[in-house]
Write a structure and sequence with these properties.
heterodimer; A: 116 residues; alpha/beta; 5-stranded parallel β-sheet; 5 helices; globular; B: 221 residues; 5-stranded mixed β-sheet; elongated
Amino acid sequence: MSKKILIVDDDEDLLEIMVERLRMRGMTVVSASTAIEAFTLIEQQTFDVMIIDFMLPEIDGLQAIKMIREKQPGMRIILQTAYATIEKESEALALGAWDVVEKPADFDRLTQLIKQ
Amino acid sequence: MTKPNNSHGKTGVRFFGEITALLSHDLKNVLSIINENAGLLEDFSLMAADGNPIDPERLGMVAAKIRRQVRRADEMIKRLNQVGHSADRPQGAVNLTDLVELVCALASRKAAQKAVSLSVTQRSESVMVKTDAFTLQQLIWACIDMAICIVEASNTLEIDVKSTTQGATIRFGPMEAITNKPAEAWSELPQKEILKILNANVVADRDKGMLVIQIPLEMTT
């Protein structure tokens, strides 16, 4: 069965290309450009994996993970960030993130994480 | 001009550090997009190897996307270069609107984090002043920084530049917090050291809800 992915990033160009490449791999992909948009989608649909950027307007990726974790405990969350520090990575993992991926992401690694 | 002291030096380094961090973050996004487009080209070549024809129009679209990101990165680097070179001379002729637009472009990402957009208006003919561009950028940055923290989310922070008989003003607003707080509450902002170097003032126009930088036509040395 194909995985259902929610991808959250405020950079429209990045969102567009990521959605296209994940869809080419047979995944069902829904996108959001803010954490608030993501919350609405999570209320309405169930996702296997969420890929979320760290730097988002108003509510950042870490705050979003904290808030989303309770709504869909079964969903795996991958945090994408321009600069992955040990502190940020530890905090994300402690909040319930499945993994932290630094930008530019290794797409093969990302798809492996999704398929795991 | 007042000789910069250590505290001003630290403020300048902090300002440049913040800008560099913000821009390098955005550059990583640009690199990500270029990286994903390269990946997409690889996907196409793998599909072609399996006997699926490549649509030339799709290839053209990928090339256009890469070119757009290169332009985006080039603009970011140009802005960083402009700020870097503004520290070369302690004083010089500055087009105030251009300078405000530069700082706004640099601060746009920071403002977007608070869901605030920035808009610059020039309210009179080209406004030229003789000043310390690097220090003035810090003053504008400090005012934008403070304004985006108090402006309501989803609002636009309007910044206008106007020449006056004594020099020029840069106004930031409208902000309800300016109207509601007494004028003295803003007197400590931003650092006095910067104001002293520029012979500038920051005042609150409570009637219009604006924070106003007043700068002289020529900075006294």
